[in-house]
Design goal:
7 helices, 31% helix, 196 residues, NADH Oxidase, single chain, four-stranded antiparallel beta sheet, alpha+beta
């Protein structure tokens, strides 16, 4: 058994998987464009079915008009803590392949790209937090996202901050979450279907 970051794993996996989590406390310090592009470089090396690479990323650094626009799409509960972020990223996925066929694995592949980005952020000691709490329709409309793309998630990136700067209701959540036991999600062979 391994214990890292208050998390236990049954098997000897790499520490990065136990270190990565989605904190909210950010300092408000800026990050460089180079730091942000390093995260996106990691994302772009994710596995992809048939190497289609359906993910696309739009980003805005804090202090730009685009950051304020991207910020406006967040739900109020996320605005409370995202105000101290350094960059916002919108991950899109292309719905169809280049030859016009529906890409049923686009969200799956885009999730892999997100995970690469999140792990790279952990390696760089940055806060990287993916969010579903945004208003999709205004985002699609105001940014004029083409019909053949869909929004997968928004991501806030920043430098680590102090837990004390978060509202009380978020402080208690500012820790790595645990996972179900392995035997609750992994089953052997056809007999495993009965355990679902």
């Amino acid at each position: 058994m391994k214990n890292v970051n208050g998390r236990n794993s049954e098997y000897d996996i790499g520490d990065i998987f136990l270190k990565r989590y989605s904190p909210r406390a950010m300092s408000g310090e800026s990050i460089s464009k180079s730091e942000l592009l390093t995260l996106l470089e990691a994302a772009h090396w994710a596995p992809s079915a048939s190497n289609i690479q359906p993910w696309r990323f739009l980003y805005a650094l804090k202090g730009t008009k685009d950051f304020d626009l991207f910020f406006s799409f967040l739900k109020e509960g996320n605005k409370i803590w995202c105000k101290n972020g350094s960059a916002l990223i919108i991950e899109l996925s292309k719905k169809n392949t280049d030859d016009g066929k529906t890409n049923n694995l686009r969200s799956f592949d885009s999730g892999g790209a997100w995970e690469n980005l999140a792990l790279q952020g952990t390696l760089m000691n940055l806060v990287v937090h993916g969010m579903a709490g945004y208003d999709k329709e205004p985002l699609m409309e105001k940014l004029k996202i083409p019909d053949d793309y869909d929004v997968e998630l928004m991501i806030i990136v920043g430098k680590k901050g102090k837990i004390e700067d978060l509202p009380d209701n978020l402080r208690e959540r500012e820790k790595p979450s645990l996972r179900k036991d392995l035997n609750e999600i992994v089953f052997e062979g056809i007999d495993g279907v009965k355990q679902l």
